[in-house]
Specification:
The complex is a heterodimer of chains A (106) and B (121).
Chain A: E1 9-12, E2 18-23, E3 33-37, E4 44-47, E5 61-66, E6 69-74, E7 83-91, E8 94-97, E9 101-105
Parallel strand pairs in A: 1-9
Antiparallel strand pairs in A: 2-6, 3-4, 3-7, 5-6, 7-8, 7-9
Chain B: E1 3-7, E2 10-12, E3 18-25, E4 33-39, E5 45-51, E6 58-60, E7 68-73, E8 78-83, E9 92-99, E10 108-111, E11 115-119
Parallel strand pairs in B: 2-11
Antiparallel strand pairs in B: 1-3, 3-8, 4-5, 4-9, 5-6, 7-8, 9-10, 9-11
Chain lengths: 106, 121
């Protein structure tokens, strides 16, 4: 079955740029999306179709997807961005989630 | 306002059954696919099942195939998940989500607050 691999944790200083990767075989040939989940809350879609932002998502969130890696980039990271982030795609009639990355803003 | 409200979770012994519900409002329910996603305590997201707007197509994760059944009642704007033969590893928060299926894009743009299923004797 298809797998998506994310780093378990990423740390960033406030105001800096955070990059979270998501790797999968030929992932660039598929669409990837990203969710943010804060403790005790439901997931929120932050990027879809590789690089589109839903209404209400700040411009500092951006995405890319090429070859085997999708990347979520948060520019000018704020304390409120501290959360778990999950990538997701579709393969062989199944939704596939990455294992999640805990973003720490310190 | 688009809203999804799950219900039906609870404590059930191994081998037991439950029916989870998800009441939708604020959008034309019948025109959108819907999905169930679960999250075990302290773990990541796991997709469980999905269903097209017309209910003509259903999809299941291998881990639940043959035990869980997804369905919907478009007249009641409600999504269901019948969960049978429950195991300890099915313990999780179960979320329903509005599922966008659009030319290769399969994102979930609205999520409910979740309902908790605990499988224990």
């Amino acid at each position: 079955s298809y797998e998506l691999t994310q780093p378990p944790s990423v740390s960033v200083s406030p105001g800096q740029t955070a990059s979270i990767t998501c790797s999968g075989d030929k992932l660039g040939d598929k669409y990837a999306c990203w969710y943010q989940q804060k403790p005790g809350q439901s997931p929120v879609l932050v990027i879809y179709q590789d690089n589109k932002r839903p209404s209400g998502i700040p411009e500092r969130f951006s995405g890319s997807n090429s070859e085997n890696t999708a990347t979520l980039t948060i520019s000018g990271t704020q304390a409120m961005d501290e959360a778990d982030y999950y990538c997701q795609t579709w393969d062989s009639s199944s939704v596939v989630f990455g294992g999640g990355t805990k973003l720490t803003v310190l | 306002e688009v809203q999804l409200v799950e219900s039906g979770g609870g404590l059930v012994p191994p081998g037991g059954s439950l029916r989870l519900s998800c009441a939708a409002s604020g959008f034309t329910f019948s025109t959108y696919a819907m999905s169930w996603v679960r999250q075990a305590p302290g773990k990541g997201l796991e997709w469980v099942s999905g269903i097209s707007g017309s209910a003509g197509s259903t999809y299941y994760a291998d881990s639940v195939k043959g035990r869980f059944t997804i369905s919907r009642d478009n007249s009641r704007n409600t999504l269901y998940l019948q969960v049978n033969s429950l195991r300890a590893e099915d313990t999780a928060v179960y979320y329903c989500a509005k599922w966008v299926m659009d030319y290769g894009d399969y994102n979930m743009d609205v999520w409910g607050q979740g309902t908790t299923v605990t499988v224990s004797s």
